[in-house]
TrEMBL record:
It is found in: Periplasm. Residues 1-28 form the signal peptide. CDD domains: PBP2_TRAP_SBP_like_3. Keywords: Periplasm, Signal. The lineage of its organism: Bacteria, Pseudomonadati, Pseudomonadota, Alphaproteobacteria, Rhodobacterales. The keyword Plastid does not apply. This is TRAP transporter substrate-binding protein. One of its GO terms (biological process) is transmembrane transport. The keyword Metal-binding does not apply. One of its GO terms (molecular function) is carbohydrate binding. It comes from the Bacteria. It comes from Alloyangia sp. H15.
């Protein structure tokens, strides 16, 4: 073989190797995932399970790195980044999601779900399908519906037993007009702010309290600054493990199927972990001195929400059937 032939052969080998490397790089994908919670939270554990399963079942072609503790930004910004494909996937509450997806807002109507088990049935069925289609139209693909329990009010001033007890309280809410109107319907002062700011804001009196589920109240130590936890259970809002449509479309159909299956499996795990964590959280904060009261007359709160429903349906008449389907379900 001449020197020229050897050089040409070597060049060919290098070129083929480069093409193969490029093909491998193109087929491999590391997805970036957003999560607001600490690493031992039910959501976080389920997301890590999701990441492990997709890596195993795709043979390492698709892997995921999850950034916990809101490292990639706050929730509203992260939702937008997922829509744009900057962040590949995340676990989001459907409350903030409602700013981009009108259908998701239906789940943020106070008392629309009768119980957490009922919410699971509806979100795993027709309601979830309808909301999922709305999400896809906005560039987001749902992979699994997670639990967030029932949200209740907590504050540093007094227990809440009736709507009148909310009057005058400065209450932090998620960034959604529905939550603002919910508090205002009881003559409270609603204050949207980032979740990470709540502890210090209650401590310094910027707000009197907030509303959330027991594990969030406990894991963020909000019970240290707001000792009254009132089980109004006014919101049962599902959460979603979801993916950017732009990132989704880069995957093969087989990979998409694996991610969808892993997402649903992670949701089952998260719901089980959630039930355990919720009971443990209530026990912990009660032992720490939190005054927990059960609200007996929820009908009074439901009646106070009539203007919220009227305003929502006036602005979203196309969602009337979805609202009726959920409200009328057993």
């Amino acid at each position: 073989m001449t020197i020229f032939s050897k050089v040409r052969a070597l060049t060919t080998c290098v070129a083929v190797g480069a093409v193969m490397s490029a093909a491998t790089a193109a087929s491999a994908a590391e997805l970036r995932g957003w999560n607001i919670h600490v690493e031992d939270y039910p959501v976080s554990i389920a997301m890590e399970s999701f990441a492990k399963e997709i890596a195993e079942k795709t043979g390492g072609e698709v892997t995921a790195k999850i950034y916990h503790n809101g490292m990639l930004g706050d929730q509203p910004d992260a939702i937008e980044q997922v829509r744009l494909g900057v962040i590949d996937f995340g676990e989001f509450n459907l409350g903030p999601m409602g700013q981009a997806v009108p259908e998701a807002n239906v789940t943020s109507l106070p008392f629309i779900f009768k119980s957490v088990p009922q919410m699971y049935r509806l979100m795993d069925g027709a309601a979830g399908e309808a909301i999922g289609e709305g999400m896809k139209a906005k560039g987001i693909v749902p992979l699994g519906w997670y639990a967030a329990g029932a949200r209740s009010f907590y504050n540093s001033i007094r227990p809440i037993n009736m709507p009148a007890d909310v009057e005058g309280l400065k209450v932090r809410v998620m960034s959604n007009d529905l939550f603002v109107k919910m508090v205002e319907a009881m003559d409270g002062n609603a204050t949207p702010m980032a979740f990470a700011e709540v502890y210090q804001s209650i401590k310094t009196g910027v707000v009197d309290g907030a509303e959330n589920n027991p594990p969030s109240y406990e894991s963020t130590n909000h019970y240290e600054v707001a000792k009254y936890f009132s089980l109004t259970e006014h919101l049962i809002i599902p959460e979603c493990l979801c993916m950017s449509l732009k990132s989704w479309e880069k995957l093969t159909p087989e990979q998409q199927g694996i991610l969808m299956e892993a997402g649903r499996a992670s949701a089952t795990l998260q719901r089980e972990l959630w039930a355990e964590r919720e009971a443990a959280s209530l026990e912990k904060v009660r032992a720490a001195g939190t005054e927990i009261n059960t609200v007996e007359d929820k009908a009074a709160f439901q009646a106070a929400m009539a203007p919220v429903y009227d305003a929502f349906l006036a602005g979203n008449p196309q969602l009337a059937d979805l609202v009726a389907m959920i409200r009328d379900a057993e």
